[in-house]
Amino acid sequence: MNPTLIVASIRQRLASPLRMAVLAALVGLPLLPVAFAPAPGLWFLGDSMGIALVVAAGAIGPDVSAGVLQILFARPVRRSEYVLSRWCALASGSALVRLAQIAVATLILAARGSAPASHDLVSLVVGNALTPIGIAAVLVMLSSLAPGLGDLGLYLLGNLAGLVLEFWGRVAGRSFLERAGDEVRRFLTPDVDISPILNGGDVPWFAIVSYLSTVTLCLAVAVVVMNRKELSYASG
Amino acid sequence: MRALDRVSLSIESGEAFGIIGPNGAGKTTFLGCLLGFLKPDSGRVTIEGREADDLEIRAATGYLPERLVLDRWMSGADFLRYHHALARLPEGRRERDVMEAIERVGLEPESARRSIRKYSRGMLQRLGMAQALLGEPRYVFLDEPASGVDPAGVVLFRRLLGELKARGATVVLNSHQLEQVERVCDRVAFVQHGHVESIETVEAGARVAHVLRVRWSAEGQAIAGERLAAIAAESGAELRSATGSEARFAVSADEVAARLLRGLIGAGLAVVEAVPEESRLERLFLGRPAGSPPPPSPEAP
Q1: Which residues of A touch B32 (CB under 8 A)?
Q2: Which of B237, B214, B185, B156 is nearest to B14 (CA)?
Q3: Can you tell me the distance from the alpha carbon of B41 to that of B265, in angstroms, rounded to the nearest whole number?
Q4: Would the CB atoms of B63 and A74 count as touching at under 8 Å?
Q5: pLDDT in tens, A147-205
Q6: CB of A39 within 8 Å of any CB in chain B?
Q7: What does DSSP assign to residue B275?
Q8: Alpha-carbon distance A92 to A27, whole Å?
Q9: B14 vs A229: CA distance, rounded Å
Q10: Is the ipTM of this complex over 0.90?
Q11: Nearest-CA neighbor of A178 among A158, A163, A156?
């Protein structure tokens, strides 16, 4: 990975006022009920998908569409280095934003005398760090395949397709369709639930291996696609 | 659609090599292959015996694309720092190199601190040139470098190209500005309909027939048309037209033009200007039907 590319990717995100405004809303609005609801709790924060999508959408596609990659790849930078650096920047950025939100919510809850149980907090922190990292890998892959913000479209379309399959399978009594839909959605939003470990249960090896294989597969596909991409003025 | 085929050429180290041809001829495709952005279906592009996209080669390469798209959220100076770091140039030299590059392309230090979003087309091109020259690259690929640049910028770019050549960099220049190519390049490839029609030395244009426009002082000695025609015939040229203190002569080569000028001056004319109607490259390549043989050129490889 290339530190210059990682820093540039983060600065690029910070330089987008629209993205920052949406992110501020996604981070700030759920904190209001945490601060003011009669029965506060971390569940008001919802899941980390929104933050991950806002931070990581357009991971590669806009660079391809705009044509900035030509001048970048004229430098001694491997394409795999570019892909992995983008992922590292977007994954760590979205995970850090989510963890900061959880930290603020925890402080608010503690101030209100409703501090969450430590094992609940650990489970939430680990899960909410891993999910954005996984979603960032998926978006990097989709972004290598689609120009502009096409990765976001593909992500939402894939989730919708998964939901339709699940619903159809349930209605038609076809369990394999239901399972297929579930798998599609789990692939698009990789996560690991570590609560069994915290509750004294077994290590969820299947979930851990599934998560790692999804992230690895997505990054490998993105690297292969970028390596095969020819950069002409018509690209994108 | 054919985009180049059977191209086979070698560019010497330290050579300035021009690529010219009409729009859509495949010049940029050719440059894309040289830079390793486009993979040829067959054949190879090697630089110092390595693949064109070898990282060591890229570390020694500067590139200015025709359609320059920069990361517009950066300031000009940030953009140069970014490329300085990507080029693996020493961090300790970064600020000095960036400021020197900004000065070299005639950008104000104040404007370098502004967002690239606010740059004019000409400023963008200057910034692009500055990034291409960072670290004094051994190989410089320039695609229409003076596109969108004001006249002062064109002159500046011409000087920068001269400096590149003087310090022994290998320059590949794709430009529609034939005068710029002629001044800088040692050899020129004429690309048309997707393939290289011919490769010529710029000097070869001196041996091609062209029209020379000669102007002399109106206050000096007058001369009759018949006398002009006679002087032209004696020197191997042909008078095309004559009006007042100006005449046009058809000459077969630069040597003939030199004899003609000696004859005119010898006849008492105060010659103040002698300008070919076409540059040497225009003579060489333009107006020649596709596929027709190039003019004889003993120096051409």
Answers
A1: 230-232
A2: B185
A3: 58
A4: yes
A5: 888 999 999 999 999 999 999 999 988 889 999 999 999 999 998 888 888 788 888 89
A6: no
A7: E
A8: 16
A9: 31
A10: no
A11: A163
